[in-house]
Amino acid sequence: MSASTPQQGRLAHAPVVLRGGRWWLDGGADSVPASDPAFTTALDDFALSMAAADQAVTDLLIRQDETPSTDPGGMR
User: 10: which residues sit within 8 A by CB, 6+ positions away?
Assistant: First the structure.
């Protein structure tokens, strides 16, 4: 797992949870550790992509708030 992957959290709309750096398949009543390296690598990559997308949206919102909007008449 990459160092920048969070150590804990649930992937949005997915029955998997990252606890203490290990992926678990969450069936509601019980959880099973995910042990397939290819699967856990795919989960790591997906989690990193989701985090990057969330950060990009946050950055856009911040920039949008900082950019003054003016109308054609120069009034704000």
Answer: 16, 17, 18, 26
- Residue 57 sits at the vertex; the CA angle it makes with 53 and 63, to the nearest 5 degrees, is 140
Q: Tokens in use for 63? A: 């920039």
DSSP-H helix ranges across 8-73: 37-66
pLDDT in tens, 46-62: 999 988 999 999 999 99
Give residue-wise pLDDT tens across range 4-16: 556 678 887 889 9
Q: Model pTM?
A: 0.68
CA distances from 27 to 15, 24, 49, 70 (A): 7, 9, 24, 52
